[in-house]
Amino acid sequence: MTSKIPAFSVILLLILKNSIYLRAEDDKPPYKVVLDKLVKEKEAEHIVKTDLTFDKVDSEVLVNGQMEQLVDLDNNYKSLIIIHHADEPEGEYKKIMTLPKKGICELMQKQYKNYFYESLKEHANAPDPDACPIVKETYVIKDYPLDSSKMQKFLRPGYYRIEGFLYHNDQDVLKYSIYAHVDET
């Protein structure tokens, strides 16, 4: 199955996969993150245009497509991420974490650099995490596998709603919600 996924949501999903933030014991069984759906609630096509897909192949998801970034992004652009969890798919989602609003360059230099860049650069003309601003460019990604092995200590079964906001000059210009669930493997 193939579905169109905006680039900002890929960043949100990768952050989710690398930091579902409730620690558990070191001996817990392995888990995997499964994307269920994306809801694009507010778009910002004057900032970025995307044509990305998640291609589900067996138990793996491959990201393909491109993102046309139309402006340079610096710390005047900020992200805010709120993570909710429910035990059942139709259950009540409870907020479990709010990641503080931070500049895009800071996000790139920390989460992106620490968790994604090394594997992503093999599949994309990925931006350098230490460069700020992130210059306008068309980024292409091919067969990038989403892998939840790095964050096993943070995962727990259940259903997640991750709300991601992009702010510019303290005004929210973009919002995506990603729904995913975590299964035991």
SSE arrangement:
Layout: E1 2-4, H1 7-18, E2 31-42, E3 48-57, E4 60-69, E5 77-86, E6 94-103, H2 104-120, E7 137-146, E8 158-168, E9 171-184
Antiparallel strand pairs: 1-3, 2-9, 3-4, 4-7, 5-6, 5-8, 8-9
Helix pairs in contact: 1-2
Question: How is this structure best described in words?
Answer:
With 185 residues, the chain is of the alpha+beta class. The protein contains two helices and nine strands, in the order βαβββββαβββ. The strands form two sheets. The protein has a five-stranded antiparallel sheet. A four-stranded antiparallel sheet has the order 1-3-4-7, covered by helices on one side. A hairpin with a 7-residue loop joins strand 5 and strand 6 (94-103). The protein is globular and about 40 Å long. Mean pLDDT is 81; it is low at 19-25.
User: What would the average pLDDT be, to the nearest integer?
Assistant: 81
The value of Rg in angstroms is 16 Å
- N-C termini distance: 20 Å
How many DSSP helices? 2
Helix content: 10-25%
Q: How much of the residues is beta strand, in percent?
A: over 45%
Q: What is the overall silhouette?
A: globular
Q: Major sheet, described briefly?
A: 5 strands, antiparallel
Q: How do the strands line up in the largest sheet?
A: 2-9-8-5-6
What would you call the structural class?
A: alpha+beta
**Tally of strands:** 9
Query: Ranges with pLDDT <50 over ≥5 residues?
Result: 19-25
* Helix and strand pattern: EHEEEEEHEEE
Pfam families: DUF1091
Keywords: Signal
Signal peptide: 1-24
